[in-house]
Amino acid sequence: MWSVQAIRRRRLYPQGLQAWHVVAASLGLLAYWGLRMGLSYGLGLAAFPSG
Fold first, then answer.
1. pLDDT band at 2 (very low <50, low <70, confident <90, very high)
2. 45: alpha, beta or left, given left = phi > 0 and alpha = psi -120 to 50?
3. Which of 5, 25, 44, 50 gives 14 a disulfide partner, CB atoms 3.0 to 4.6 angstroms apart?
4. What is d(CA 42, CA 51) in angstroms, rounded to the nearest whole number?
5. Cβ count near 5 (within 10 Å)
6. pLDDT tens track for 5-50
7. Hey, CA dihedral for 13, 15, 20, 22, is it positive or negative?
8. Distance linking the first and last C-alpha atoms of the chain
9. Half-sphere exposure of 32 toward its Cβ, with a 13 Å CA cutoff?
10. CB count, 10 Å around CB of 50?
C-alpha cells in the first residue's frame, strides 16, 4: 500500500507518515533480526525453523 501511494503521489513518504515512524519500524525490525540471530547462533535454538 505504501508503494502504491508513493508511486501515485510521486513522494517517497505518503502524506501523514512522519520520519519517526520509519525510524521506529526500522529499529523494531533490526531488534527482531538481532534477537533471532542471537537465539540461533548464540544459544543454538531453532529461531529459523526449516519448514
1. confident
2. beta
3. 5
4. 21
5. 14
6. 778 887 777 677 788 888 999 999 999 999 988 888 888 777 766 6
7. negative
8. 29
9. 7
10. 4
Q: Is the CB of residue 14 less than 8 Å from the CB of residue 2?
A: yes
- Please give the Cα distance from 27 to 15 (Å, whole number): 21
CB 45 within 8 A of CB 35: no
Give the three cell numbers for residue 43: 544459544
The residue type found at 2 is W
Place of cell 505518503: 14
